[in-house]
């Protein structure tokens, strides 16, 4: 039986193996994904992003518990960085979530970025799709949380949560593009710390400066103490409100269109590059171009044009 | 174009709180290019095995200093068998009396590293032991 058939029959090991095949970019993973695609689209995808140490993993753990109480099956994709020097990675997000490990209604997978930028791994969307096909009602995706450019998550998740902590720089940090624009909900975690109210107030003020059309979603600012499970139910309620709003306002159609476009474009880019680059690397053209560039006989711009022209003709 | 990345789970079963050794091992495997799933302290055999399966690891490295190795480590191997995942290689490290080693190996623990083993030695052993996918 192929992996996708076993996955649809509820085989956990098959799902885990396909995720690995996807991560390792095995060609066979694409045919499994092909077959699983019609079985996806049922899960509610939640993105969780924010700086390191904000408490993302602990919050994901509590959100998972809250959805389990509601009888939902939960998938978690947690991403940590790969070392650019050794290619190795320490994936430690599970430490905060492992109480769910032996709950059959929860599936947690740690992924390393493997050089991919933007806060997700190359494989994240596909791994989330596998969880969706496994019948997870909710899939929570926790981004790396290192930069200010983690915007890929908004093209993947239905609802994006930005987690902050008290006392993180002044309001100018928040006006800078990026973080304030990607959140559907903002969470000030570790709300028992000094300055939590101030941080929440400043965030609210910044958000109020945005222009909202009639009926548009206005991102709420919530306070949580994930460690003590304070404010988590309200947070889940608020995420569900956002999900409801997406449906009621029809915004969901736009979002899904963007999401699908992103998935398709990424795939096309990756395959085209692999195809074209693979060919010229194999037949030695790539080496010739590099030599040419070194002696300035060849410029990279016309080389690319030429390769493209040849490939598109054939 | 595609190359298999090795994955290992490093965790601590049982109740002792000494995770320095586990962290050093995790770090050594990271530096050797592995993806290391670090599950931390106080893990039950059930949690370890479920995590290993969900993460599709090649190998499980367990650090144990509590003295409960004869109870907890065979349990991990039994659960792996029960879930038809016995191809996942399990090794352990810690303060383990010489006399207990044969019993642990009979239970399915592939290797036991006691104080004095170098991280290079452990990484080399894992690389040569795990079956290619």
What features would you describe in this structure?
The complex is a heterodimer of chains A (314) and B (133). Chain A has helices spanning 3-8, 12-23, 27-36, 56-69, 124-133, 171-175, 179-182, 196-208, 232-249, 251-282, 285-294, 300-313; strands at residues 44-49, 74-80, 89-91, 106-112, 138-142, 159-164, 185-188, 221-223. Chain A is of the alpha/beta class. Chain A folds into 2 domains: 40-249, Rossmann fold (3-Layer(aba) Sandwich), CATH 3.40.50.300; 264-313, no CATH class. A 7-stranded parallel β-sheet of chain A has the order 4-2-5-1-6-7-8, with helices on both faces. In chain A, helix 2 (12-23) crosses helix 3, helix 2 packs antiparallel against helix 5 (124-133) and helix 4 crosses helix 9 (232-249). Chain A is globular and about 65 Å long. Chain B is of the alpha/beta class and 133 residues long. Chain B has one domain (7-129): Rossmann fold. Chain B is built from 5 helices and 5 strands. In chain B, strands 2-1-3-4-5 form a 5-stranded parallel β-sheet, with helices on both faces. Chain B is globular. Chain B starts with 6 loop residues before the first strand and ends with a helix. The chains are: A alpha/beta (314), B alpha/beta (133). Strand 3 (89-91) of chain A pairs parallel with strand 2 of chain B.
């Amino acid at each position: 039986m192929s992996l996708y058939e076993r996955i649809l029959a509820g085989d956990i090991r098959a799902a885990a193996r396909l995720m690995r095949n996807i991560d390792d970019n095995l060609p066979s993973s694409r045919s499994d994904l092909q077959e699983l695609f019609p079985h996806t689209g049922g899960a509610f995808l939640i993105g969780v992003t924010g700086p390191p140490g904000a408490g993302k993993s602990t919050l994901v753990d509590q959100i998972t518990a809250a959805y389990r109480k509601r009888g939902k099956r939960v998938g978690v994709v947690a991403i940590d960085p790969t070392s650019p020097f050794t290619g190795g990675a320490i994936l430690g997000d599970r430490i905060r979530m492992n109480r769910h490990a032996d709950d059959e209604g929860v599936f947690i997978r740690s992924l390393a970025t493997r050089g991919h930028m933007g806060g997700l791994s190359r494989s994240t969307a596909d791994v989330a799709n596998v969880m969706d096909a496994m019948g997870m009602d909710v899939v929570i995706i926790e981004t790396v949380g290192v930069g200010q450019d983690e915007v890929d998550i908004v093209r993947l998740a239905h609802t994006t949560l930005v987690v902050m902590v008290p006392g993180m720089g002044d309001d100018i940090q928040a006006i800078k593009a990026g973080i304030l624009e990607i959140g559907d909900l903002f969470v000030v975690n570790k709300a028992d710390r000094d300055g939590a109210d101030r941080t929440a107030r400043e965030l609210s003020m910044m958000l109020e400066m945005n222009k909202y059309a009639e009926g548009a979603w206005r991102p709420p600012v919530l306070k949580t103490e994930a460690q003590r499970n304070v404010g988590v139910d309200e947070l889940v309620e608020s995420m569900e409100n956002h999900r409801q709003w997406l449906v009621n306002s029809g915004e969901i159609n736009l979002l899904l269109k963007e999401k699908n476009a992103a998935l398709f474009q990424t795939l096309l880019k990756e395959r085209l590059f692999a195809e074209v680059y693979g060919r010229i690397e194999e037949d030695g053209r790539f080496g010739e171009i590099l030599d040419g560039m070194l002696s300035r006989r060849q410029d990279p711009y016309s080389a690319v044009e030429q390769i493209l022209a040849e490939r598109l003709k054939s | 174009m595609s190359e298999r990345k090795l994955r290992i789970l490093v965790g601590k079963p049982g109740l002792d709180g000494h995770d320095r050794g586990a962290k050093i091992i995790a770090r050594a495997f990271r530096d050797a290019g592995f993806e290391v799933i670090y599950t931390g302290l106080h893990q039950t055999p059930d949690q370890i095995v479920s995590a290993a399966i969900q993460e599709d690891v090649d190998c499980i490295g367990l650090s144990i200093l509590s003295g409960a190795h004869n109870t907890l480590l065979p349990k991990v191997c039994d659960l792996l068998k029960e879930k038809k995942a016995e191809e996942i290689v399990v090794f352990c490290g810690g303060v383990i009396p010489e006399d207990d080693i044969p019993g642990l190996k009979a239970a399915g623990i592939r290797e036991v590293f006691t104080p004095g083993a170098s991280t290079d030695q452990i990484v080399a052993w894992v690389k040569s032991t795990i079956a290619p996918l």
